[in-house]
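We include the pair:
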Amino acid sequence: MSFKVDAYSDIGTKKNVNQDALLIKQATVKTIGNVCLGVLCDGMGGLSCGEVASAAFIDRMDSWFKGEFPKLLETLGENVDLELLIEKVKNQWNDITTEINDKLKSYGIEKGIRLGTTVVAIIIIGNKYLVMNVGDSRAYKFYKKKIEQVSHDQSYVQQQLELGRMTEEEAKHSDKKSVLLQSIGASEHVVPECFYGETERGWHFLLCSDGLWRKLTHKEIIGITPQKDGIKRLTDLVKNRGETDNISGLIISI
């Protein structure tokens, strides 16, 4: 499979620093064909140095793709079992999450600050994908008029929705909608959530920070994202609707 990608990040209308960070990497591997990695991090806006936290995770995933991922492929030989490969990637990503969480906590203690980041990441290998998330940055997949949120928000309002203690309308207007249950660097221990699936030509995957998804409908995501400069178009749309947070997204189309 081949991939078409697009990405855009905007500081927003009120923030002094863009604490979001993005990564898209592609490679062609003899044993498995084309591979695409996408990672999006949203540094914690209410904490100090969120941009340091998001950049640290992005840099680590970049080094993983360049170094550890090729070594992993070498250990699997010529006939690669994709399900086994995906499982090993998941384990390595879990280890990276723990590693960066510990490093950011130590850095925060040393500097006397608090910092953290969300993450949503995807890797597409052959006809299979793996999504990992911590926090409330999201991954969507869509095909024609069908859309699904792949990731699961680790947030207070999502928890209350699932417990039946809050309605969708109450969640939308809650003053706690930015309160996270987990973030990398600001949590004692972090447990990422991982999601597996199969894909085929014609599917699109959108990774986005809450600054992008909060003020969009599914219809708008489906209709606008795949267009030329689609992420920027969505960004302009939510800014016109009053979004003030950093706004970032990336799309991988198959």
Observations:
- DSSP finds seven helices and ten strands in the chain.
